[in-house]
Amino acid sequence: MAQDDVFKKIVSHCKEYGFVFPSSDIYDGLAAVYDYGQNGVELKNNIKQYWWQSMVLLHENIVGIDAAIFMHPTVWKASGHVDAFNDPLIDNRDSKKRYRADNLIEDQIGKYEEKIDKEVKKGAKKFGERFDEAQFRATNPRVIANQQKRDELHARYAEAMQGPDLVALRQIIEDEGIADPVSGSKNWTDVRQFNLMFSTEMGSLSDATNKIYLRPETAQGIFVNYLNVQKTGRMKLPFGIAQIGKAFRNEIVARQFVFRMREFEQMEMQFFCQPGTEMKWFEYWKRVRLAWHEALGMGDENYRYHDHEKLAHYANAATDIEFKMPFGFKEVEGIHSRTDYDLSQHEKYCGRSIKYFDPDTQESYTPYDVETSIGVDRMFLSVMCHAYTEETLENGETRVVLKLPEALAPVKCAVFPLDKKDGLPEIAHEVVDELKFHFNTHYGDPKDSIGKRYRRQDAIGTPFCVTVDHDTPKDRKVTLRYRDTMEQQRVDIADLRSLIENRVSVTSLLKRLGAQIAGWDK
Ligand code: GAP
């Protein structure tokens, strides 16, 4: 199945099974804004719990905060967002559609890469076992020509983005003959800068002095509280502050479902350290964050690092962790070495000292900061994309199953009485009442066949189903069914909790991760 079709199926599955709805759906939605339904919110909460606990439980020197979305307007002047948080946009005069100029050029670079990959695949097919990819890439004339075009374009693009140089970006679009992906028209306007922050007014007057912004990143709430936390928590460097919260960006091109939204959620941690130690911590957090992803068991080969060539105005090093989505490897998380930029800027703008007095060296200095920043919604999307599976069963039927990491599944266990009679519903309720205190357990009404009930749980990714049948009143045993293998096992009711709990708890993930990172150099 084409990857585009797979993605469309995932989007409609999300709606059909209560994971994600378009915002204000009865009014036909609001562009790039989404609501999470009854199953989506559980999955999202599990992701957040895993992240939060991996920060504040596994690291003794990390604490959390919850800052307000509205902040003093000077925060955004100091942080550079008022002046520099822009995207280069371009309009097509014929289609009246608006695009990010950088995205159009990146897509063009991607096209050269696709051509190269196609040639390589053809070569591999032709030469079979004898195929030497490195040699093929170095000698095949079509690969060499496309590689050269790709590299030249990439170099021009990287240089144009440095300023950014808007005229140069426009010229690249012209020279490459890039057309509107929808209409095919090449009738472009000039490239302009577009600030991504949403603004509103505070209080009853709407003059410029009352203008405030909806935060475009949660990080600034941490920087302006750095001193409060350091002093009240008597924190010694190095230490981190973690936060989960909403962020807002007026994205020019919001696309790919919850991948690029106008209202989204971030999980960010700022790790403050001694100047000069930031690269060591940058490397540490790169490794720890990748290990966090890998502990979920979604395939190590589906992740890769992407080091930034163009650095944000505040960073001296930056890497993305990318995940293989149906539309290619895409950024899910960023790790940025932000130097002392933010704290120094706030110090300058607020006129107060935000310096740290180091009791060991008896010196005062502004700490450096290494940030880990992951979007909850992108993480959610990567989990959904990886989990969505269509299987053909022996009887020829198709089974749609979400093979979610068990600890993230919205519902961990569903309990079904086989029948309405003979006290089976009462026993099923008893089982639910025992298990529900330990993990999310649902009761499944016997109005549908057992097969239908299994399918519905498969479709929302429930790892365990329990069936109470006519023998249960006699032997206190039930059938435990495993989602991925569909294997069934007869077990004592008394053993259910221990059989399920270890596999579905976030604690089990944390233990796996904790054991892995325990020995890492800090
Ligand atoms: N504080 C640094 C920062 O905000 P970023 O790379 O702009 O850095 C961090 O964003 C993460 O936030 C991204 O890796 C992505 O997961 C998420 N994110 C950013 N913009 C988003 C959007 N429009 N919709 C959904 N998630 C977004």
UniProtKB/TrEMBL annotation:
Main location: cytoplasm
Database matches in PANTHER family: DNA POLYMERASE SUBUNIT GAMMA-2, MITOCHONDRIAL (PTHR10745:SF8), GLYCYL-TRNA SYNTHETASE/DNA POLYMERASE SUBUNIT GAMMA-2 (PTHR10745)
GO molecular function, one term: bis(5'-nucleosyl)-tetraphosphatase (asymmetrical) activity
GO CC annotation: cytoplasm; extracellular exosome; microvesicle
Function: Catalyzes the attachment of glycine to tRNA(Gly).
Top EC class for this record: ligase
Subunit structure as annotated in this protein's UniProt entry: Homodimer.
Positions of the Aminoacyl-transfer RNA synthetases class-II family profile domain: 150-410
Family affiliation: Belongs to the class-II aminoacyl-tRNA synthetase family.
EC number: 6.1.1.14
Domain of life: Bacteria
Protein name, as recorded: Glycine--tRNA ligase
Gene name, Swiss-Prot/TrEMBL: glyQS
UniProt xrefs under InterPro entries: aa-tRNA-synt_IIb, aa-tRNA-synth_II, aa-tRNA-synth_II/BPL/LPL, Anticodon-bd, Anticodon-bd_dom_sf, Gly-tRNA_synthase/POLG2, Gly_tRNA_ligase_bac, GlyRS-like_core
GO biological process terms on file: diadenosine tetraphosphate biosynthetic process; glycyl-tRNA aminoacylation
Binding positions for substrate per the UniProt entry: R100, E217, F264, E265, Q266, M267, E268, E371, T372, S373, I374, G375
Entry's localization field: Cytoplasm
